Q: What sequence folds into this?
């Protein structure tokens, strides 16, 4: 079992590094899918089967496909992204490394947690999670549908083409965005 | 097989999951600062969300408390909404400034 854990951990860390360092966005998305699949493996190791299934369906099934669609529609699959300056890159690696060091220092004495409840092999199955979701957390569950509705409306509003400014904003030299309708009038 | 999975919770120490989550979160932070492509910055945000989810699930499994897993479920919902809005902003950005470089987004800078 420890071997399975180390296997999944190695896969997730290596694919996360590929996500950050890949030149092409498509490669980053594929590496992120691999990373999410290995995290689903971690969920199964933790006996959280409901979360593993939801994770595969929502993340690798929906969100990553959304990323792929956006890359495909906007034709972003060019590795011509200008890299940041060397100083910024060194600062990025230093920031991540120092953050990791800080977190590790916080747990340097180990984590001594006594479980609050008796060990229950049914935790994480659909039954226990579903009971908790629809008894204690029914109101947040319903409110999340409102969240999705507002997100949907916001996305449609954001992604709709604006009829008032037919030319791209980059071609309107020196014009703030709000003055574009005045220009037409 | 099911028994083997259940015993895995007790075999792997909790520190291992904590360190793994820390590593994934740090890689995500480094990626947000490292890259200029907005879509990859969004993916690094997803990576950080997932490290937090993994940590919550590990604590939930060690505490035998299913409520933390419900919390992870809600984090997934919020992350899905966040990604849709973020990608819509990305589409709008590509349309307006014809680039996905975050360095182009300096219109609010003094």
A:
């Amino acid at each position: 079992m420890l071997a399975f854990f180390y296997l999944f951990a190695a896969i997730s860390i290596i694919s996360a590094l590929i996500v950050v360092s890949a030149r092409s966005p498509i490669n980053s998305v594929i590496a992120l899918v691999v990373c999410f699949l290995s995290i689903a493996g971690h969920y199964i190791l933790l006996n959280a089967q409901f979360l593993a299934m939801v994770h595969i369906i929502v993340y690798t099934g929906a969100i990553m496909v959304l990323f792929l669609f956006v890359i495909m529609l906007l034709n972003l699959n060019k590795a011509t992204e200008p890299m940041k300056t060397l100083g910024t890159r060194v600062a990025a690696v230093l920031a991540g490394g120092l953050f990791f060091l800080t977190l590790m220092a916080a747990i340097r004495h180990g984590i001594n947690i006594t479980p609050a409840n008796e060990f229950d092999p049914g935790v994480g199955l659909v039954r226990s999670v579903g009971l908790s979701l629809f008894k204690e957390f029914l109101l947040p569950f319903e409110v999340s549908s409102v969240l999705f509705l507002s997100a949907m409306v916001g996305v449609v509003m954001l992604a709709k083409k604006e009829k008032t400014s037919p030319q791209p904003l980059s071609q309107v030299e020196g014009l703030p965005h709000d003055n574009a309708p005045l220009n037409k009038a | 097989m099911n028994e083997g999975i259940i015993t895995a919770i007790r075999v792997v120490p909790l520190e291992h999951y904590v360190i793994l989550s820390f590593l994934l979160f740090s890689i995500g932070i480094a990626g947000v600062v490292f890259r200029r492509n907005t879509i990859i910055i969004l993916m690094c945000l997803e990576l950080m969300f997932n490290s937090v989810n993994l940590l919550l699930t590990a604590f939930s499994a060690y505490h035998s408390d299913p409520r933390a897993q419900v919390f992870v479920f809600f984090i997934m919902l919020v992350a899905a909404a966040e990604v849709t809005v973020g990608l819509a902003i990305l589409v709008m950005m590509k349309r307006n400034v014809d680039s996905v470089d975050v360095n182009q987004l300096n219109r609010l800078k003094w």
In short: Helices of chain B lie at 2-11, 14-34, 38-63, 67-97. DSSP finds four helices and no strands in chain B.
